[in-house]
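Homework help board

Subject: predicted structure for assignment chain

Our instructor gave us this sequence and asked us to write out the predicted structure in token form, then describe one feature. I got the tokens but I'm not sure how to describe them. Can anyone check?
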Amino acid sequence: MTHAAHHRWTDLPIDRPLALLARRRVIGEHVMVSQVTLEAGCFVASHAHANEQIAVIMEGELEFVVGVEGSADCLTLRVKAGELLLLPSNVPHSARAIERSVVLDIFAPPSERTGIDELGQRTQ
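My token output:
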């Protein structure tokens, strides 16, 4: 990309890779940002991906399980509006929306498909 690209969230297309989850995103050359809305009760099953991810909670509250469930290093974390979670690449994680939540997910490197896309395909 050689030029700046100006976007308005409301002008970007919405996709719904999972029930109760809506996503808009901008994919750059080296980074991707997604605006994700999870309705209360939305569950994103455990998955992992090569992308490093930062989940910035803009509204609401989510419960994340990070690591292999049942292992000694598995963590359960509640992350609220104004907080963020850094997820290293290839670390399994799941999320459950305690209430309606809006998250900015930042991924590097970018990719057309992420862990939730793979999950959505398995449930269809």
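Reply (TA_rk): Your tokens look well-formed. For the description, you could write something like this. The two ends are 35 Å apart (CA to CA). That's the kind of observation they're looking for.
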